[in-house]
Sequence to fold (163 residues):
Amino acid sequence: MPAQKIVIYPGSFDPPTNGHLDLIERASKAFAHVVVATLRNDSKRPLFTVAERLEMLREVVEPFGNVSVDSFEGLLVDYARSRGAKLILRGIRAISDYEYELQMALMNRKLYPELETIFIPAAESYSYLSSRLVKEVSALGGEIDDVVPPTVARRLREKHSKL
Ligand code: PNS
Fold:
């Protein structure tokens, strides 16, 4: 498959939200193949293990025939090279995301000049949504069923009942 047709959608996905899912769906229509890649060496001390995040992602991408799931360690550019991909996809929720996203995109370009980062605006209905807020609301007993896929809501409840 030509490298330009494979897009890597990297993230922490701790956990995946409906905002991520919306982006995956948009990407699946725009690119021949989408690889949703979750970070293994996350310094943010994730709530979900890599195995759990991969399981949730596999479940949510199941309806899309051209989306696969993977995990990576180290630099994103090295992972992209190893997959023969030249496109990175990131979602932008608001202007405030842009500064950080631009910094990452330009650093990645510095490290791997042939790699392009593509931004897709998140659905406006999910523009306030983040994994961090979902975890906080769920931990405090709030309702999260409308903002995450059912498998994620179930796992969040399980996690928090065990904590
Ligand atoms: O969902 P997130 O936490 O916003 O995703 C951030 C992610 C995983 C895309 C970013 O932290 C990343 O690419 N990490 C891998 C290490 C790396 O390449 N760092 C240099 C980025 S310029």
The CA atoms of residues 88 and 117 lie 5 Å apart. The chain has one domain: 3-128.
